[in-house]
Model the fold of this input.
Amino acid sequence: MKITLLVVGKTTDPHFMAGIDEYARRIRHYLPFDMEVIPELRNTKSLSEEQQKEKEADLLLKAFLPGDHIVLLDEHGREFRSLEFASWMGKKMAAGLKRLVFVVGGPYGFSPRVHAVASEKISLSRMTFSHQMIRLIFAEQIYRAMTILNHEPYHHE
Done:
């Protein structure tokens, strides 16, 4: 199974980028992983929030491949403890999925069209984080899940 973290907009903070790169390297020790970036929309001042979500949806929907298991990182999604997320990941790996795609949307969330094609939604917290920060936090959680599944001493509980 390959994991793709699909994000809207570049990560511009070099500290976040270094952390994301480090966890991506660690994750690749266990399975194929990549982060795909959908370009940020330009000239959005004249667009409503809904129009922006629809334009982002056009780009996101083009990035999905047939057979993808699409999971939105969404504030209304299911919350996990790290051990629960690791178990969930283990089940996805055992299910024989070709590509598990986690999606971080733009600043206004996802359009109904993106929600319609998603298989699941996960929330990382009830708190709000910047989209750049979520990328780092989530990459770390994927790595943590892999170490838990492989009975390695990274996670302490």
In short: The mean pLDDT is 94. Helices lie at 14-27, 49-63, 82-94, 112-117, 131-149. The first strand starts at residue 2 and ends at 8.
